[in-house]
Amino acid sequence: MPDIKAVSRQLAKDLKKYRADYIEARLEESQRSHITYRGRELESVGQATAVGGNIRALVKGGWGFTSFNELSDLPSRVELAVKQAKLVGKEESRLASVEPAVDTVASEKHSPLAISLSEKKQLLDEYNDIIWRTPRLQTSVIGYADSHKKTIFLNSAGSYIQQQRTDITLRLSAVAAGDGEVQQAGLSLGSRGDFSSIKGLHQEVAEMAKSAVALLSAPQVKGGEYTVVLDPVLAGVFVHEAFGHLSEADFVYENESLRQVMVLGRKFGSPELNIVDSAALRGLRGSYKYDDEGVPANKTYLIKEGELVGRLHSRETAARMNEKPTGNARAINYSFPPIVRMTNTYIEPGKSSFEEIIADIKEGVYAKNWFGGTTSMEMFTFSAGEAYMIRNGKLAEALRPVVLTGNVFTTLNNIDAIGNDLDMNQGGGCGKAGQMPLPVSNGSPHIRIRKCLVGGS
Known about the structure:
Radius of gyration: 24 Å
Strand content: 35-45%
Distance between the termini: 62 Å
Structural class: alpha+beta
Largest sheet: 9 strands, mixed
Number of domains: 2
Helix content: 10-25%
Mean pLDDT: 95
């Protein structure tokens, strides 16, 4: 098998020989493992390695793209991508200017590769045993995955960037059933390769399983408009799913109706509201030094002091919209070209404590965690994983999980209190254009939303 560094250095020397406006290559080596349980039984376990890459060429505004599973005969791959681009291109090529970078980014200190598959399985066996000590469970799911990836990015402008990254995810859920009712509870975690982050969760796993059973006898909220307080997990999911995707410039550029709404300078909230996407934060699952176009990571304000001030870009969308690139072009692996994606998306903290946020609520709902949801342009529907009534400024009885529905722009304007307790959720994965689950993080402090529609009885 050809050495990835050797072939990449030769390719870097050869790229300028080809007649194209721009060419880039991404070469990759990866190792992965996974363990899955369904119910009491181990469903699957395995390890895999992969080597491959892709070439992307731009000619007269048209892109050519080819991916491959071996590193031999790279010149023919380049020729194919250039030929494809010439078939498509009929206008001027435009990419936002970026200084070429030559850099090597070291791997994280932690790596799951140092831990045997049997040791990983032993920990998950313990968690599965704890789940099934709880009566009235119908089923459960545990999904563990880790990866270590080495990539080399190079382009015809002179960039040559080596990066390594590791990733771990663990997702557990328990489903309880009784008297014709079914309820579930879940736990989701992740890290940049630190296996210790998913160890020692025995108490949390036991509480998760018991929560699923307890929800069978919990009351259901009466549907209607409430003042709703979201915990950092659900608020983070809200800002990612309902607003973050609308800030991805390819989506904005391709939707005339959205361009008319997402006008820079428009007010979307109170002066306390700040929404950020930043791959430059250290140690989070959406963090990196360079994106998959070789653009340095940035901290990008999407909303600042309640005003829409930015959006997320690749080099192409930045050029088309006459804005600056933000370092948000990402590909899940070498089989795909990079597209505009979020990284670590969050609401910046305010000044209020949780006690202050709920103090003047006579009757409201506290919603935590999440199970899922859907978005359609500016409309959203999310299911909370836990919910409690708020009565006279205090948390009251537990509720069955609630469904929150609304318009994201109306909801942003209805945020009237932001907590001082920012927390980042590392357990998520983002999907777009068939590329999923891309490692991301999202977060928020507690937030309070006036006039939020809650589905119930």
